[in-house]
Write a structure and sequence with these properties.
Elements lengths: L1 H16 L6 H5 L3 E5 L4 H12 L3 E6 L12 H11 L5 E5 L5 H15 L4 E4 L14 H25 L4 E4 L2
Parallel strand pairs: 1-2, 1-4, 2-3, 4-5
Helix pairs in contact: 3-4, 5-6
Length: 171
């Protein structure tokens, strides 16, 4: 156990000493990213960090109005991100990633506003916090259609228009 802690501490110290990560702002400046599932949580925080480092960010989500059980909407997330960044570089677009026409709208609107897509973060997901043995067919179909089909379709459509760049799938 001491050996693992010692090695872990060494890795952390090495990361802190690595100055190659400092010019991140310059690397991301004027790059354009689409982040799905960005109304809250991981997607929101990724979008916030990208915008903070001067990237253009299109945030995608289904939550348009305040939900009794969930924090944030894509509009409140965009307001929050734009207030932290140096320029208004966050564009909120409503989209259900299971709907190919809504995905096409996200891509077209992003290209019209920012000119290119340099990266895509596929973070949108559906999770039913129910015991596996008690999950209904409706819950299973929702999770499959969003977490598998929706992410694949969104990624495929983005890849068709990206000249180069990166895609991150958060599953």
């Amino acid at each position: 156990m001491k050996s693992i802690k010692k090695n872990y501490t060494y890795v952390l110290k090495s990361i802190k000493k690595d100055r190659s990560l400092i010019p991140l702002s310059e690397c991301l400046k004027d790059k354009t990213f689409i982040v799905s599932g960005a109304s809250r949580g991981i997607g929101f925080n990724i979008a916030k960090k990208l915008a903070f480092h001067n990237a253009n960010v299109t945030i995608v989500g289904k939550t348009l109005t305040k939900h009794p059980k969930l924090d944030g909407t894509i509009y409140s997330a965009a307001d929050n991100i734009n207030s932290l960044s140096q320029k208004n570089n966050c564009l909120p677009i409503p989209c259900d990633i299971r709907n190919e026409y809504e995905i096409d709208n996200v891509i077209t609107t992003t290209l019209n506003k920012f000119g290119s897509i340099d990266g895509v973060i596929l973070n949108a997901s559906a999770l039913c916090l129910n015991n596996t043995l008690k999950q209904t067919t409706k819950e299973i179909n929702l999770m499959s259609s969003v977490n598998i089909n929706g992410k694949y379709l969104f990624g495929q459509k983005c890849l068709k228009v990206m000249k180069q760049g990166h895609m991150l799938i958060i599953a």
